[in-house]
Specification:
- 45% of the residues lie in helices and 17% in strands.
- It is α/β, with parallel strands linked by helices.
- The protein has a domain of 246 residues: Rossmann fold (3-Layer(aba) Sandwich), CATH 3.40.50.1440.
- The two termini are 34 Å apart.
- The relative contact order is 0.14.
- The protein binds guanosine-5'-triphosphate and magnesium ion (MG).
- The site of guanosine-5'-triphosphate has 26 residues, from helix 1, helix 5 and helix 8.
């Protein structure tokens, strides 16, 4: 099962590069206590998933790189080539001369339609190289103009062109005190559009990752590179192969086809709730991924506690554990948790609130209306996200 990654904008391309580097260095590294055969099957599965072979013998990432300015893409291509361990294909990137200027509407309404054919052509070619296409992974930030606006547009195109393929959007949540003045507008527009065309959003908050770099890793001058390496490490620990359910051997599971649909219950449905005040974070679904030593003897009882989950789901359906004895990235044991829960309510509420305040005073709206995104479009987006907030609040 293979996955085609579409890297969009500065952030999406820089993170995509770190993800492929992390995957590649993991399969080249030590493998803990697992058998040679197990390790080989893990490596083969990772390669089938994320890389295709080329004649030179260096794995080539199954990726399409898109940005509206050339700098980041050329840096990304040459950094990968310099590693000597993997590279991008020399044909699967698309760039223009000038970025979208942190304007979602420019990315979505101008660059999107103008370059749709060229971009989708590259995606189609990558998809055709896969024996079995498992779906698409996109990487992008929500705050700029290209990753967010063009990214939302490309996701809709992917949905139309591949109606039955799984689409997972990895999105980077901007710093609370971010550098882009209209980041809250761009985020609201991105999230509400992805909500309609994506199968799942996987979110990393820059503030949270920054804190990990500062407090857990003790990095003094934190760069995007540091932040991206932490993000890539976490994504790698989710996307690398694990065994199929029931402990059978083989690594055929598609990591994108997970039960972590971000779609909440129907906005109108009422949810009976008991002792709500005791919960601080109710979940729809949790996925725990365990790698390395002793994974099969770990007691997972506390993850199956029904009080963690919304009452309309059976905890057996809401919790999944994937395991492999193959160690990840030199760690003897590791655990990653992917959670569809109320965790994002606070940041989401904050972004929508700030965007709404700006919208109420019509600040910067002309920058959007001049590219065809009207006030009514904003109102639709606010409504979509208010419904998401309300559904998650009532879990
Ligand atoms: N974690 C992380 N965040 C980034 C990175 N680069 C930019 N960002 C964040 O992304 C947002 C800005 O979006 P960019 O990705 O730079 O914008 P773009 O998609 O290139 O769009 P335009 O430049 O407007 O064409 C801000 O919230 C930044 O904090 C990165 O490498 N890593
Ligand atoms: Mg840019």
């Amino acid at each position: 099962m293979s996955i085609v990654t579409v890297q969009l904008g500065q952030c999406g391309n820089q993170i995509g590069h770190e993800v492929f580097s992390a995957l590649c260095s993991d399969i080249r590294g030590t493998h803990g206590l697992c058998s040679k055969k197990e390790n080989e099957s893990y490596q083969d599965s990772c390669k089938e998933r994320f890389f295709c072979e080329e004649e030179s013998g260096v794995p080539v990432a199954r990726a399409v790189l898109v940005d509206m300015e050339p700098k980041v893409i050329s840096q990304t291509l040459s950094m990968a080539a310099r590693s000597g361990h993997w590279k991008y294909s020399s044909h699967s990137h698309f760039c223009q001369k000038q970025g979208s200027g942190n304007n979602w509407a420019n990315g979505y309404s101008v660059h999107g339609p103008r370059h749709k054919e060229a971009i989708m052509d590259l995606v189609q070619k990558e998809a055709e190289k896969c024996d079995r296409l498992g779906g698409f992974l996109t990487t992008m930030s929500m705050a700029g103009g290209t990753g967010s606006g063009l990214g939302a547009f490309v996701t809709q195109c992917l949905r139309d062109a591949f109606p039955t393929s799984f689409i997972l959007n990895h999105v980077v949540w901007p710093y609370g005190t971010g550098e882009v003045i209209v980041q809250n507008y761009n985020s609201v527009l991105t999230l509400s559009h992805l909500y309609h065309s994506s199968d799942a959003l996987l979110v990393h908050e820059n503030d949270v990752i920054h804190k990990i770099c500062a407090q857990l890793m003790n990095i003094k001058q934190i760069s995007f590179r540091d932040v991206n390496q932490v993000i890539a490490h976490q994504l790698g620990s989710v996307f690398q192969p694990t065994h199929t359910a029931g402990g059978g051997s083989g690594y055929s599971r598609n990591p994108l086809g997970i039960d972590w649909q971000v779609r909440p219950p129907h906005p109108g449905c009422s949810i009976p709730s008991t002792n709500k005040a005791l919960h601080f974070n109710t979940s729809i679904a949790n996925l725990l991924i365990l790698r390395g030593k002793d994974v099969h003897s770990v007691d997972l009882g506390s993850f199956q506690d029904s009080s963690l989950y919304t009452s309309w789901l059976n905890p057996q359906d809401a919790f999944n554990a994937w395991k492999t004895p193959r160690a990840f990235n030199k760690y003897e044991k590791s655990a990653a948790l992917v959670s569809n829960s109320q965790f994002l309510l606070k940041p989401l509420d904050s972004i929508v609130g700030k965007a709404w305040n700006m919208f109420a005073s019509k600040a910067y709206l002309h920058q959007y209306t001049k590219f065809g995104i009207q006030e009514e479009d904003f109102l639709d987006c606010f409504t979509t996200l208010e419904q998401v907030i309300s559904s998650y609040t009532n879990l």
